[in-house]
């Protein structure tokens, strides 16, 4: 009998407090934007779905619920003084990193910087190592040959955060593997928050390419370390986050197809080719070797972001399609619910954030 490791994942974009303003979300009552109100609703929702892996991000785009692992973007103070202690009560552990600008700030300002976090159920997973990916540092290192790499990509302080986990016995719900080497299956869980501005589609694509290249190095180094230790070395990849990119963008084409043309419109013909020479591929295209698939399609999930003036998919969960199979999808809030309750956008008194998967 074959045995399978089964786990659930939730990707949740927490609208952080400093962006939850009436100027931005005038259709939502002030009391429903207050952090003390929203944080309880967010935690209740997280606890309700009880995912094994949770990815959190935080920005001023807000949306609606969707899937099964928990990856989160959240302010530094929120993570350490609220989410981490509360979720530890439920058997989770977690890691967090603020965006790169936190390094330039004093302690009092740093606690309000938003960032990314990953929580995991301690009974099912053990943390092997965590990795921070800073896009501004990578842009600086690859700036040769392009002023735009310095002037457009490098100033953006977005990050990726990755946790190398290994499974425990509890992750094998239908029986313990007879092959003991399978018991501690390594999984690299990554969450990322890509730059938001639609006018900077070139920055989004380059950040995603840099992320993929860094994950390749992390996977290879992790496999080498595990091989030397006599452990299972086939590292699986789970990539979640707010990519701030629509399904027809260069970002999603690159992640889904494993390649993107060097002449893609999203590069805006800004002359990045010279500074991207170290990226895998050729003169004609850039590539990656991860065989990734999205956990959902547009016909199943028409939106992950539902605000007054924008409704669409910008948040994603990608998985290694050769070795992982999605068994179910939570799906979006129904259009009928929005119409029946006259909801024009989120956040809403009954939807404390948005961008959840």
From TrEMBL:
A molecular-function term among this protein's GO annotations: metal ion binding
Gene Ontology cellular component terms for the protein in this record: cytoplasm; nucleus
Gene3D superfamilies in the cross-refs: Endonuclease/exonuclease/phosphatase (3.60.10.10)
Cross-referenced Pfam families: Exo_endo_phos
Endonuclease/exonuclease/phosphatase domain ranges (all copies): 11-326
This protein's record includes keyword DNA repair: no
Class of this enzyme: hydrolase
Reaction(s) catalysed by this chain's protein: Exonucleolytic cleavage of poly(A) to 5'-AMP
Cofactor(s) the protein needs: Mg(2+)
Subcellular location: Cytoplasm; Nucleus
The enzyme's E.C. designation: 3.1.13.4
UniProt keyword list: Cytoplasm, Exonuclease, Hydrolase, Leucine-rich repeat, Magnesium, Metal-binding, Nuclease, Nucleus, Repeat, Transcription, Transcription regulation
InterPro entries for this protein: CCR4/nocturin_mRNA_transcr (IPR050410), Endo/exonu/phosph_ase_sf (IPR036691), Endo/exonuclease/phosphatase (IPR005135)
Family from the record: Belongs to the CCR4/nocturin family.
Protein name as annotated: poly(A)-specific ribonuclease
Organism: Operophtera brumata
């Amino acid at each position: 009998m074959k045995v399978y490791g089964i786990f659930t994942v939730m990707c949740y974009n927490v609208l952080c407090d400093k962006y939850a303003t009436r100027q931005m979300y005038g259709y939502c009552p002030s009391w429903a934007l207050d952090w003390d109100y929203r944080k309880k609703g967010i935690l209740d929702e997280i606890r309700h779905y009880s995912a094994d892996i949770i990815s959190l991000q935080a920005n001023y785009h807000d949306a609606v619920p969707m899937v099964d692992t928990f990856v989160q973007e959240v302010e530094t103070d929120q993570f350490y003084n609220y989410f981490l202690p509360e979720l530890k009560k439920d058997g989770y552990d977690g890691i967090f990193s603020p965006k790169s600008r936190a390094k330039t700030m004093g302690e009092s300002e740093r606690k309000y910087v938003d960032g990314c976090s990953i929580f995991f159920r301690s009974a099912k997973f053990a943390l092997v190592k965590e990795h921070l990916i800073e896009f501004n540092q990578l842009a600086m290192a690859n700036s040769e040959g392009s002023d735009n790499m310095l002037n457009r990509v490098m100033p953006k302080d977005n990050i990726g955060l990755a946790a190398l986990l290994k499974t425990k016995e509890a992750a094998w719900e239908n029986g313990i593997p007879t092959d003991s080497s399978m018991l501690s299956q390594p999984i690299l869980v990554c969450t990322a928050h890509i730059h938001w501005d639609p006018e900077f589609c070139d920055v989004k694509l380059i950040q995603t390419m840099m992320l993929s290249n860094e994950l390749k190095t992390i996977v290879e180094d992790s496999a080498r370390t595990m091989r030397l230790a006599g452990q299972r070395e086939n590292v699986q990849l789970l990539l979640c986050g707010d990519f701030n990119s629509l399904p027809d963008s260069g970002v999603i084409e690159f992640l889904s197809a494993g390649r993107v043309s060097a002449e893609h419109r999203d590069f805006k013909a800004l002359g990045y080719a010279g500074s991207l020479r170290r990226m895998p591929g050729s003169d004609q295209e850039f590539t990656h070797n991860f065989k990734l698939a999205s956990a959902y399609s547009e016909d199943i999930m028409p939106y992950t972001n539902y605000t007054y003036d924008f409704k669409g998919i910008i948040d994603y969960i990608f998985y290694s399609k050769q070795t992982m199979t999605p068994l179910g999808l939570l799906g979006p809030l129904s259009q009928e619910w929005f119409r029946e309750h006259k909801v024009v956008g989120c956040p809403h008194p009954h939807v404390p954030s948005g961008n959840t998967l």
